[in-house]
């Protein structure tokens, strides 16, 4: 097997003295979709922050395309190809949709209009509202703006923390379809999801995180078929 595009191994760390991550491992292959599920407070968002460099690890390493990036800041990781959509505060509500996308392109010196057009093609509903303040959009459209904002740096790894939080089932399906479309262009996806069943259906690899450690790791379909995983984490 080829070397994974993202490889985070043995991550330990947290906020202050208490460790939230207790030896968590996450890998994503090129162009594949990795999904993290698990109970509230399991450390899913903390693991994403650690991969993105927003949390100092006490132990462990993060490798992107074979390069050790453990010591890099989030901004440096963006330059290396990471895009991150946090769970909360992931748009600028009082700025227009277009301004949000421009903010997303902050590290780019070149002409990013073609990327912006690609984002609008991916999310046509958002394109129609490009002059409106992002805060006026529906929940699903705000999430599309957030994903679009992260795509503006043309990441090779797109990290999404609960992209379908608070949206209807139809909007969730639609968003998952768009995420699959992004992955098909060769972008690796690392995604945390509360809608565990639906997310695991599209997962090349799934992680069940419990108390900051990997409880189960397998392909999405295998996790969905695992009686223990179903009973404990998927409601039967
Ligand atoms: N900034 C912070 N300072 C201190 N503790 C925090 C902070 N953020 C999270 N925690 C704690 O770390 C633990 C893991 O939180 P985290 O947000 O990573 O969980 P999660 O799996 O993403 O949960 P959820 O499903 O609710 O999003 C929780 O006990 C939480 O209270
Ligand atoms: Mg979270």
TrEMBL record:
Keywords: Amino-acid transport, ATP-binding, Nucleotide-binding, Transport
Source organism, top-level taxon: Bacteria
PROSITE patterns recorded: ABC_TRANSPORTER_2
CDD domains hit by this protein: ABC_TM1139_LivF_branched
Positions of the ABC transporter domain: 6-236
First and last residue of the signal peptide: none
SUPFAM superfamilies: P-loop containing nucleoside triphosphate hydrolases
GO biological process, one term: L-amino acid transport
Pfam families: ABC_tran
Molecular function as annotated in GO: ATP binding; ATP hydrolysis activity; branched-chain amino acid transmembrane transporter activity
Family according to the record: Belongs to the ABC transporter superfamily.
Protein's UniProt name: Amino acid/amide ABC transporter ATP-binding protein 2, HAAT family
Origin species: Paracoccus halophilus
